[in-house]
Every structure is written in structure tokens, then in C-alpha cells.
Amino acid sequence: MPDGWHDARDWHGEVSRALILAAETQAGALQEAGGRAVYAGGDDLLGLVSAAEAFSVVRSCRELFLARTEGLLRRRSASTAVVFFHVSFPLQDALARTRMALVEAKARPGKGGLAVVVLRRGGEKAAAVLPWRGRQGSDPAASLEALAAEFRARLSPQLVNDVYRSRHGIAELARAGLDYGAEIRRLVGRHADAGPVDALSLVGAVEPAVGRLSADDVRAWAEALDIARFVAQEAR
After folding, report:
1. The pTM is what?
2. What per-residue confidence (pLDDT) applies to 203?
């Protein structure tokens, strides 16, 4: 119970009311985006929405939960899972992967992760777990939206493959304390159709928040880029 509350029953009642209001406003956010809340109650939310609206909706729903519970809960966090799947994909399989993705998001330190998965008819195509507060305070959902816009506008899809192929070299530069960002800038510049590109603001926003990158970290980075590329190509 946070400081300032002296009666546990009053506090529990206020928390319950706040969670009910949060669920109602979250369901409204889904509806406004053309989606639907399958379940909204307590601190759980399950909804369906178009791929084009997914990142803006999950960001709004997280902000609504945090706003409604301000001053009532200590160490508030909101773990989120977003799973992209085709209308013909088996719904039960998609729900099962969503539950697994949510476990992965909650496994992050602070339980404040955003897990994103892309499912194809043939199986899983890409998956990444990002912190809700990334490097320099970046928002992962907004970062993925911005990257998707750049893939639509001027970034070649081949950037993802090049980052993946270069993962060991990028990790070696990072481990040696060298400017691995220079290699990222080179790759982004190589795959940008026109104009100067601020590579680190585009790509760095989904960089794994670790001290020294490993090859697996860079692979996860490429997975996040692949998700943005998918949204750019499929979510129109």
C-alpha cells in the first residue's frame, strides 16, 4: 500500500475502481481504432485490432493503465505482447503464442517489456522483446512505427539481411569498445533510397539495452528491424 493510505479497505476499493476505469478506457481505445476488446478486466487486456493500428493502440492502452493507477500502486509496470497473424491463421495457436510472448515480456527486469511476434502460415517469422523504456528514453512501439514508415519511404528491406549477416562483426566492434555505430550507419546509408539518414535515430531506437552487444543481441536487433519491415509491407 503506497504512502498516504491508512485504511487498506479504502485503498483496495480505490484500486479496484481504477482498474475498472482503466479497462473501460482501454476497450474504448481499441474500439476507436476499429478493433475490439475480447477481455478487459482488472489488469488484463486482450484485444484484436488491425496491424496498422497495433503499435499506437498498445501504447495508448499502456498509458491509460499507468495514468489510472498513478498514486495507487508502487513500481507500476505494464508488460505487453503484440502478435501479428493472418486472418486464416489458427486462432488458438495465435493465442497460445500470445500467452508465451507475454511471459517473455514479463521476464524482462522490471516486468516492463514489449514482446512482438510475427506469425506466418508456415510458422514464426520474427520475434523480439524490447524494454518499454529503451535507450535515451525511447518508446519501442513508437520506434517500430517510425522504422516502418522509413521502410515504406526509403529504406530497402535488404537492410535487415545485412544487419543479420554482419552481426558477428558488429558484436566484435562493440566488445572492443569501438564505434560499432559507424558500421550501422554504413549499412543504413547503403540501403537508403534518398537523402541523408540519421541511422542511429532510425535503427538505434530498437537497439538492445545492454552494455556490450553480443552476436545474439545483434540478431535480436535484426529481428526488431524485420518486424518493422513486416509492418511496412503488410500493414497498409
Report:
1. 0.84
2. 62
